[in-house]
Amino acid sequence: MFGGWRRLALAIGLPLVLAGSGPAAAQGANISIACGALGVELTLCREAAQRWARQTGNRVSIVNTPNSSSDRFSLYVQLLSSQSADIDVLQIDVVWAGMLASHLADLEEDLGPRVDAMFPALARNNRVKDKLVAVPWYIDAGVLFYRKDLLAKYGFEPPETWDELTGIAAAIQKAEREAGNDRMWGYVFQGKAYEGLTCNVLEWVSSYGGGTFLSSDREITAQNPQARAALSRAASWIGTITPQGVLNYDEEASRGVFQTGNAVFMRNWPYAWALAQGEDSPVKDKVGVIALPHGPEGESAAALGGWQLAVSRYSRHREEAIDLVRYLTSAQVQKERAIRGAYNPTLIALYQDEEVIEANPFFATLYPSFENAVPRPARQAGARYNQVSDAIWRTSYGVLKGDRAPRSALERLTDELDRIAYRARWQ
Ligand code: GLC
To answer: Residue 284 is part of which domain span?
Structure first.
């Protein structure tokens, strides 16, 4: 039945979770959906998809994908390039719309009006050459988590600039270590060489007023004094307020340190809120969420992230697959996901919903951060986005590691972006 998927899943060691079978499963279509990888994300997707199956008399199979977004992307590319009909609905990253567009069904007619009620940056992002390639499911924007209790204990206000964050982190780290917690660190973020680092770097550089590497008309802007200052500041954290191990941290690794109580500040996506507030969380009720700091000449910048639902062009059940996407992106399901998992709704109206705001007070206070989140240069780079992002995280990683000075790293990045632009005939 799921020959291709099953073989591929087994070959790369992925668990395949089948759901929604049972007595009623004899009729209707069997829709397979790849959504989420772990924990609450997978549970929420499975429960909602099963509800849809029960209501419509169809069946669903949940395909468990790798947690790392790069691995997920490779898996999708393998499947879609072979025009596999085994996957109907895919959860895709906001930066993949351009790269996967040719493999995805046009959802404009069925779901275009709904997408128009969502954040404009997301709506724009998912319309590639006048085709609606996916429906935004939740929006992500980088935010700063901080320990309210520790800042209050040492008499600090939450930081507004990166310099303030650096000073507060160093002071509290020192005091806490002297008081006996020798595992305390000032600041954790995503420093591993992968897509998450591109998001962090974009936030540093943009919040120093240093642009987004490629301007909206594809001019290469990587090399500038503000970008150099931002990278120098970030490099200064490693081994001082940030553990060396951050060079291997993704979202979950940094959350692990923060949630066990061993960091004053953490950069992460909103999902970390629901987990930090979990019944068994050592930092429950001790955490605040604010906009990320900015540099001396810039404004706070949150990288625009988030995930969308798309229908494969090769699906044999397009109508049912679109109906599943319609259900999963509805206000009802988005509300449930916001309350139970702190997944930011893409439907703007839900930011007026009292229960949503009660569960996630920062959805209201940080609304401007979501609305003005800074996109990675994915639209400009189109099918070349992965190469562009790879160049950004690889060169910045060298700076964090201490292998390269910011100026030389940014020169190299400029050369690499030049080469990509030349090959793509942007010039
Ligand atoms: C989050 C964001 C996504 C980003 C990824 C990087 O999942 O939603 O857009 O690419 O993190 O790790």
So the answer is: 143-301+377-424
